[in-house]
């Protein structure tokens, strides 16, 4: 039986949102995983809670390990740093399995339903690719630049700044008109050649979102994303019934259990989930399967590094009800090639699918020697001693 011998976290000061995880085995195979945002909490959960449960276990028993860890973290509330850390480790376990059997991840999932992945570009800026500033300066010019790169859909968030003064409780006609400026620039520059998604970042109440949606409807908007915080599913559903623009929600719903009520209530026409937040590869597939039973398409949230991007490509190739995979040109054209040997390509609005064993991503050797690297390793035999289920938590408190 193969065993997990160490779980390692890597952080670089230049990429503060990113936490890369390496899972080491006694066979010499190392699996890569990743999570993003609020990484100090995830790192604490990784080394303080999750690593002691996984050390010494068989990395190929992904479902059993996931359920064992989830049982432990569910006991004190799971949907935060613990699940982000678990997601990173779970993705690394799939990478190990792919490398062990010499198969790309999508084969392990059961094969492909498509050969190319539809994508939209989230217009963030990083390094030399300043797409965020570009859509503030001239969104039409940015749209043409994206089209020249083979990207046919883009996402911006031009109404967010106007929420600050009123805490999102109301928006004036004048501010609505200001928020429309980049949308009009895109349509004037490239017409309907560019799809436009509007991110809302949970900044508004329903009455304000209804006004924004009415103003956007003439511009044939692709979607409105995260219109209200997902703790208000009934309000979001009411909004969805007032506008012709499809609504997406929400990457903040963690695991299939939080998506279940959303789907049962028919809150939004499209759902979204993030494999480096929601529990990992298998959980994403389960969420996709659940959404499919309701006839609802899925967007894969992907604003992280090359490991997350590759995971989304494999998942996107496999799941039948894919709507889009999000991607960030500013990331994959700047630091993906610095961090790894994986650089995506896009043409005619579609991304390619990796075909190497596992995720198809390898860290560059010099990333492990950089001066801005912070490295932490949990190793040893672990504390779970082969357990795969919890009974009386107080009787085994020492393993947590």
Residue stretches low in confidence (pLDDT < 50, at least 5 long) are: none
Distinct helical segment count: 13
Going by CATH, the architecture of the largest domain would be Alpha-Beta Barrel
Helix amount, in percent? 25-40%
- The topology string of helices and strands comes to EEEHHHHEEEHEHEHEHEHEHEHEHHEEE
Assembly classification: single chain
Proportion of β residues? 15-25%
Could you tell me the mean pLDDT?
95
Q: Compute the CA-based radius of gyration.
A: 21 Å
First CA to last CA: what distance? 24 Å
CATH class of the largest domain: Alpha Beta
Strand tally: 16
Question: What's the CATH H-level homologous superfamily of the largest domain?
Answer: Enolase-like C-terminal domain
Q: Main beta sheet, described?
A: 8 strands, parallel, barrel
* Topology-level CATH name of the largest domain: TIM Barrel
Characterise this structure.
Helix content is 38%, strand content 18%. It has 400 residues and is of the alpha/beta class. The chain has 2 domains: 4-102 and 369-399, Enolase-like, domain 1; 107-351, TIM Barrel (Alpha-Beta Barrel). It has an 8-stranded parallel β-barrel with strand order 4-7-8-9-10-11-12-13. Strand 9 (223-225), helix 8 and strand 10 form a beta-alpha-beta unit. It is globular, with a radius of gyration of 21 Å. The chain starts with a strand and ends in a 21-residue tail after the last strand.
What does this entry show, briefly?
This protein is of the alpha/beta class and 400 residues long. It is built from 13 helices and 16 strands.
């Amino acid at each position: 039986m193969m065993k997990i011998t160490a779980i390692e976290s890597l952080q670089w000061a230049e990429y503060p949102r990113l936490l890369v995880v390496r899972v080491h085995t006694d066979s010499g195979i190392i699996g890569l995983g990743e999570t993003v945002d609020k990484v100090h909490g995830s790192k604490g959960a990784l080394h303080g809670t999750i690593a002691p449960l996984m050390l010494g276990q068989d990395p190929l028993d992904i479902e059993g390990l996931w359920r064992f860890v989830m049982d432990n973290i569910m006991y004190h509330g799971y949907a935060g740093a613990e699940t982000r850390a678990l997601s990173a480790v779970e993705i690394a376990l799939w990478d190990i399995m792919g490398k062990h059997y010499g198969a790309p991840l999508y084969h392990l999932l059961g094969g492909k339903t498509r050969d190319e992945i539809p994508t939209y570009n989230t217009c963030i800026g990083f390094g030399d690719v300043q797409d965020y500033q570009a859509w503030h300066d001239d969104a039409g010019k940015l749209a043409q630049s994206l089209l020249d790169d083979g990207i046919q859909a883009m996402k911006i968030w031009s109404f967010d700044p106007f929420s600050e003064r009123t805490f999102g409780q109301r928006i004036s006609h004048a501010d609505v008109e200001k928020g429309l400026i980049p949308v009009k620039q895109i349509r004037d520059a490239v017409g309907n050649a560019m799809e436009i998604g509007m991110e809302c970042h949970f900044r508004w109440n329903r009455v304000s979102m209804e006004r924004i949606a009415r103003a956007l409807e003439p511009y044939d908007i692709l979607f409105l994303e995260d219109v209200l915080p997902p703790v208000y599913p009934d309000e979001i559903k009411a909004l969805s019934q007032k506008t012709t623009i499809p609504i997406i929600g929400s990457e903040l719903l963690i695991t299939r259990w939080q998506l279940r009520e959303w789907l049962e209530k028919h809150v939004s026409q499209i759902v979204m989930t993030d494999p480096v937040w929601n529990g990992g590869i298998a959980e994403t597939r389960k969420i996709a399967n659940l959404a499919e039973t309701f006839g609802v398409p899925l967007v894969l949230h992907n604003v992280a590094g090359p490991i997350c991007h590759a995971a989304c490509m494999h998942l996107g190739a496999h799941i039948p009800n894919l709507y889009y995979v999000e991607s960030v040109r500013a990331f994959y054209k700047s630091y993906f090639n610095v961090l790894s040997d994986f650089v995506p390509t896009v043409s005619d609005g579609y991304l390619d699918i990796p075909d190497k064993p596992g995720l198809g991503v390898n860290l560059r050797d010099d990333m492990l020697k950089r001066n801005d690297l912070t490295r932490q390793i949990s190793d040893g035999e672990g504390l779970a001693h082969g357990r795969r289920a919890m009974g009386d938590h107080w009787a085994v408190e020492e393993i947590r």
